[in-house]
Structures are given as C-alpha cells and as structure tokens.
Design a protein that fits this description.
Layout (H helix, E strand, L loop, with lengths): L3 H15 L16 H16 L3 E4 L5 E4 L6 E8 L12 H13 L6 E8 L12 H7 L17 H7 L17 E9 L4 H5 L3 E7 L1 E10 L3 E2 L11 H17 L5 E3 L3 E3 L6 E2 L2 E10 L2 H21 L3 E10 L2 E2 L2 H13 L5 E5 L4 H7 L4 E6 L15 H18 L1
Parallel strand pairs: 3-4, 3-5, 5-16, 6-15
Antiparallel strand pairs: 1-2, 2-4, 6-14, 6-16, 7-12, 7-13, 8-11, 9-12, 10-12
Helix pairs in contact: 1-3, 1-11, 3-11, 4-10, 7-8, 9-11
Bound molecules: (2S)-amino(hydroxy)ethanoic acid and manganese (II) ion (2 copies).
C-alpha cells in the first residue's frame, strides 16, 4: 500500500514528466489544439487507464475518465492541462494529477461514480477566451464562439475539428445533471496568502469575475523620417498612453485589477510610424458591478485618447465571466477534511479564474482546495509547490471523497 508520501512523489514525478510536453523549445507552453496539448492529454489518459478508469476524449477535446461502477450519483474532479506561454508546471496539472491519485486510491465501495476531467482550454491563450472545455461540459458553451479567430485567422470551429473533435457534437460533452453531486478542483493558489499565513491549504471562498477585451488603435502609418511630429497619427503612442492610463485607473479602484497582457504593432517596421496597434485588456474583480464599471471607465479612457490623437478605435469584449461563490456544502466538506487532517480551513478568495467558475455559473455546485505556492508565483517557470503540501492536498481530497462519494 503506497504511503501518502509515495503518492505525493508520484504526483511530483508526473508533473515533471508533463512539464516536458510543450509546443515550445525549453519553455512550457500548451495551447488549445496543439500537438503538445494532445500529447499531454494522452499521457494523462494512459495514467488514468492504468488506474482502471474508462477513458475517452469528448467532442471539444477534454479528457474524460470515469470509474466503472453503476452508482447513480456522480462527482466530477479535475482541472486543466492547457497552459499559458512559458508556464509553470503546477497550474492545472497539479489538480488533475492529485484528483487522479485520489480516485485511483479509493476502494471499491463507493456511493458515487467519479469522473476525472482534464480540460483542454481554461487559459484561453489562443482564442482569448476562458473555460472553453469546462463550458462545454457544464452546458454553457456559446456556439457564437465557434467564429472566434486566433492570431492566424483560424476559427475556433475549424480548430476543434483539426484537434480531432466535432463542433456540431458539443452537446455530447454536457455532463448529465441527474445524480450530479458537483465538481471539485485542487489548484495551486497562484497568490501569497497561504504562504503568508503559514498554511499549506486553503478553501476557496469565491472566484473573481473576468472581462477580456480586444482593442485596436487605428492611426495612419507613415514615413519615420519625413513625417513631422505635429502631423502624425501614431497608433503606438496612443496605445502606450492607454496602457499607463489603464494601470493608473485600476490602482485607484479597490478590488480591481487590470492588465494589458498582449500588444502588437501591425506591419511593424523600425522606420514606419505605427498605423495600427492591437492589444488585450483583462479586468478582474470579486464584485461584478465594480468590474463592469471599471471596464466602462477603461473604454472611455481609450476612446478619449483616440479622439484627442485623431485616431479611430475598435473596442470588443471577447468574453465576460461572472464572479463565482463556491458551494457552501462542498466547501464545508473540504473544511471538515482539512480539520480532520489537523489543518486550519482558511477561506481564500481567488483572483485567478478556474474551471470551477464555469460550473458555478451553470448552477452546478463546485468547490476548490488551494495549495500553497512559493512566493505566490504563477504563470511563470518559477512556480513551485512543495512535496509535503501536495501530500497534504491528497490527504484532504481523500477525506472529502470518503465523506461524500
Ligand atoms: O487567467 C487566469 O486567471 C487563469 O490562470 N486562467
Ligand atoms: Mn493559469
Ligand atoms: Mn489554472
């Protein structure tokens, strides 16, 4: 019988193995539809099959691995296997591998069937979306999103087909509600709260809402040597002014964070005045009304900068996800399991988005267990979770499964 430390070591080893599966040399990147993400999903599927689970990939590309009993009730567990660019090895994969370990370690007697899900697009790097895989499972996928295009102009519908899925069959991804107990997710905190509190684990109280926006500043390209400064309609200086104004605006509003994560000069050349600049805006808050006001303020700022500089502007909200409160009953089960393991069930809000938010938005109960990470670093290769904290998370998820499933 494997000891908890052995089990944590196996999760750690598998995290290191998955971290080598990347679409980029020497850094970890796995975006929707890439061969690397398919390989990571297949590798995880092989571990799930070895654990005796019935494994398949659904029509959007999620890994779906179920226990083989005939209990009427079902509990979903998992997290995502896609990553941001130059990612850390724990974001998403930790939750999938801890859940797989706990499902595999459970005995034959169970009140509910368990389904492990490895989601195929939580980060939304390629299409600037969020929760595509979990929305498909929760039944809230927006068919209009099939027309979203990536930087190469490929539509999401085509990408789903190219990935071996079928955009006409997304309804088959939907988990039946009958007998569904809910969804549990283990995830590194991606913030400094647990480390500052000296706690290995926390119970997520709520997940911040997000607004993701695509912006284009449209000026006029021109000759860098012959165009007088007074006659320029420079799209990059306008964008730069907006980026700094967005930072100042967010700093002045408590509970709001705003980030310009991507910026691109179209047809860039060192001797050409930038005519078009595209950028992304990510606005978050635990309060939806405050987030909407903040996004409106940013749009007003962008439009006034464009007008003053005689530019045009395109402002498109790509995706909005509401703030989500985790299910009190499932949170209480996590709290009891943390206390049973002599821990302190610290409630922690999540500034990061998670697939659990898609289930909550669909009216499916969901809860999350946060695991301490070093210096709160995430979305960075220095992301780190200690072996003993992985072991603590396994013990707590074991406890929750013993109680509810
Ligand atoms: O962006 C986020 O909050 C998450 O990492 N997808
Ligand atoms: Mn992430
Ligand atoms: Mn994540």
């Amino acid at each position: 019988m494997a000891t908890p430390r052995d089990r944590a070591r196996r999760v750690q080893t598998r995290l290191e193995e998955l971290a080598l599966v990347s679409e980029e040399e020497s850094v970890l990147t796995r975006t929707y539809g890439s061969a690397a993400l398919r390989d990571a999903l297949r590798l995880t599927a092989s571990w799930a099959a070895d654990a005796g689970l019935a494994v398949q990939f659904d029509a959007i590309g999620n890994l779906r691995a179920r226990t083989r009993g005939n209990a009427r009730q079902r509990l979903l567990l998992g997290s995502h296997l896609d990553t941001v660019r130059n990612a850390g090895r724990f974001d998403g994969a930790l939750g999938v591998l801890v859940a797989l370990d706990c499902i595999a370690a459970r005995g034959p007697l169970r009140k509910a069937e368990l389904e492990l899900i490895g989601f195929c697009d939580e980060e939304g790097v390629r299409f600037h979306t969020t929760y595509l895989g979990s929305r498909a499972v929760a039944g809230t996928f927006d068919p209009g999103d099939l027309a979203l295009r990536d930087a190469a102009g490929i539509a999401l519908g085509e990408a789903i087909r190219a990935n071996g899925g079928d955009p006409r069959q997304l309804d088959t991804c939907i988990v039946p509600r009958d007998g569904l107990l809910g969804y549990l997710e283990v995830h590194l905190e991606q913030g400094p709260v647990l480390e500052a509190a000296g706690e290995p684990l926390g119970i997520v109280s709520a997940i911040a809402g997000q607004t993701r926006i695509a912006v284009e500043f449209i000026g006029r390209a021109g000759h860098a040597g012959t165009t007088p400064m007074s006659m320029r309609r420079d799209a990059l200086t306008a964008a730069a002014e907006f980026v700094l104004a967005a930072e100042s605006s967010a700093r002045m509003q408590s509970g709001i964070v705003a980030t310009v994560g991507e910026i691109e000069v179209r047809s860039a050349a060192s001797n050409v005045i930038p005519g078009r600049v595209a950028l992304t805006v990510d606005v978050r808050s635990g309060q939806d009304a405050a987030r909407r006001v903040a996004a409106g303020t940013l749009e007003h700022l962008a439009r006034s900068i464009a007008t003053r500089r005689s530019l045009q502007i395109e402002w498109r909200v790509v995706m909005e996800t509401p703030a989500a409160r985790c299910d009190p009953n499932l949170c209480a089960a996590f709290m009891r399991a943390v206390e049973a393991a002599d821990g302190n069930p610290l409630p922690v809000p999540s500034g990061a988005g998670h697939d659990a938010a898609a289930f909550i938005a669909a009216g499916i109960p969901a809860a999350m267990l946060f695991v301490r990470c070093r210096a709160g670093v995430s979305h960075h290769p220095d992301e780190f979770v200690a072996l003993e904290d992985i072991e603590a998370a396994i013990a707590v998820l074991d406890g929750v499964l013993r109680e509810i499933a």
